[in-house]
Amino acid sequence: MSKGTFYITTPIYYPSSKLHIGHTYTTVAADAMARFKRATGYDVKFLTGTDEHGQKLQRAAQERGMEPKAYIDEIVEGIKKLWKTMEISYDIFIRTTDDYHKRRVQQIFQKLYDKGDIYKGEYEGWYCTPCEAFWTETQVEDNKCPDCGRPVELTKEEAYFFRLSKYQDALLKHFENHPEFLEPLSRKNEMINNFLKPGLEDLCISRTTFSWGIPVPFDEKHVIYVWLDALSNYATALGFPEEMEGDYRKYWPADIHLVGKEIVRFHTIIWPAMLMALEAPLPKKVFGHGWILLEGGKMSKSKGNVVDPVILTERYGVDALKYFLLREYSFGQDGIFSNEVLLNRINADLANDLGNLVSRTVAMIDKYNGGIVPAPTIAGDFDEELKNLAVSVSAKLEEKMNKLDFSNALDEIWKLVRRTNKYIDETAPWILAKDGEQKGRLDTVLYNLAESIRIISVLIRPFMEATTKKIWMQLGMDEHQGTTWEDSASFGKLPTGLKVRKAEALFPRIDIAKELEELESLSKPKTVEVKEEEKAVEEKPEITIDDFAKVDLKVGEIVECKKHPKADKLLILQVKIGKETRQIVSGIAKYFESEELVGKKVVVVANLKPVKLRGEESKGMILAAESGEELVLLTADIDSGAQVS
RNA sequence: GGCGGCGUAGCUUAGUUGGCUAGAGCGUCCGGUUCAUACCCGGAAGGUCGGUGGUUCGAGUCCACUCGCCGCUACCA
Fold this sequence. Notes:
By secondary structure, the protein is α+β, with helices and mostly antiparallel strands. Helix content is 43%, strand content 18%. The strands form eight sheets. A six-stranded parallel β-sheet has the order 3-2-1-14-15-9, with helices on both faces. Strands 18, 19, 20, 21, 24 and 27 form a six-stranded antiparallel β-sheet that branches. A hairpin with a 2-residue loop joins β25 and β26 (630-633). The longest helix is centred in the middle third of the chain and has 31 residues, at 339-369. The radius of gyration is 30 Å and the shape is globular. It starts with a strand and ends with a strand. It binds one RNA strand through α6, α13, α15, β20 and β24.
């Protein structure tokens, strides 16, 4: 009976801040896919969850004087509540703090260690102590940390490494032999050219600098870092490697890992390499979808429009938001969100087209046939065209869905919605109703309308469960009357004699101008919250006045400025501080033309240890303040050389 | 700088291996209709398919160059 299994996953989300529309987007898409596969006869497993370890969460909990787990529990409750609101039909919600996951991650670690694919860092690596970061031979220039410019050293600091480099060729081959492995296709070259071809470095997979994580099984000083801990969730959730005969055998390898484009790299290089090392099959497909951006770029506080999915569902309903997200945007590409785009889409497709179609059909059955769905008797013009289209939609829908083309999948359904509306105009039931002789024809038209709506209701079900149920209620039908996916491909499954029920509009039409104003006023208090949240995260540890006194801040005048010949983001400045003129390299080329800086008096960190930045010496650093896309230099209208304190 | 992608009607976009009279939705204008959530249906206007040159009987589709965006990557003390 089952066509086979289908295992789909979302990323596990990091619960350090409130989830936004982007997380909802991924999860809603995965949910629609899962529901679609269930409807079409697959045995589906749908996994989502949370990634709960790491320094950031440990700190956040500390700041609130809480145990990490207790702190995270609260946030995770919120996430689960959000998914409940969005009617997400996940089968498993994994938390990386779940005992079974921790145990299995340790088993994986042990396995890889035993095999020799994990080794302790006696590795000739370069370590930058202040940055707590390891660097590779190629990254280190002149014994300097590429991140901070300070000297690095060959360290004896212990760390465990995964032999990522060993799998480079196998990965390349896999990309070549499995064009469907990574979609959209454009990402594939990015991975191959930027990572695989230049060569992979072994990956540091343990930390000793914080403790909130899964301990390395045989070396408790170390906790397992995010790569192994988080990525492996897709397999540990099924039992791997502890319980290989249950869900793991049944559902692995995953059919689709749905991820945002920013984490494609981890899912198509690191995760597959780990699986290769474990001798486990690779996921069949990783799909990196685009981002939903706000007008003018990323989510920005100054724009004042932070998108909160909960508010939107409260105002327009879950189904409207889900429909909008999947219909409006091409799944592989970025798209722009605005309230206006949302409201226009809801009005046009849901209120005017679908909602109104149901409304007018039910009203006509009510008015012309006492609310009873009549039996069709006399066929006429336009019937065949409507029927042919109606029964053909499900196949086209399947084709689009299997390509994760949600937008066009929905559009296929709406072609039928529009065709059905047109059928009403063509047959003009209100004219037939005036002529008693035409009763048979009228009955047929009314039946065909109700039947088309029945088909539509089945087709939209994976995307809009609640709406489907509402339509059934209005048609007076129950879930045993032509509601399977197969039933959507045949015309005439709707029983006659049903008693329709007029009800509230499926999607009330929105007064867009008025609504936009209200949303505008709603978004303002939100803005402040977000700002405060961000601030909290970025706070640095307290220092004393002595610490601060070590920094020598002076005013310097920019006397000359040019672009760095070998770097896009760097400017080379000649800065006069008192009598001395020195060269400072600064990463502000994105923000300023070189000419406009000459003559400016800026604040300089004068006693910073000199470094070479892509071959150019830099003695000091220019202070600037950055917020989102904006950057301003700290200027001081006073003689150059003046001390700042 | 390296690698990759994208530029098609006012907006969002479809155009698989070259045959298109370049489609669609929204918006605009005109008309029809009254069953319906002032909705729906029809029609029209609007495109030198970023630019230049080439290959070809024929190019939005292939090639070269060029302009403009974007992504990843290196460099932002």
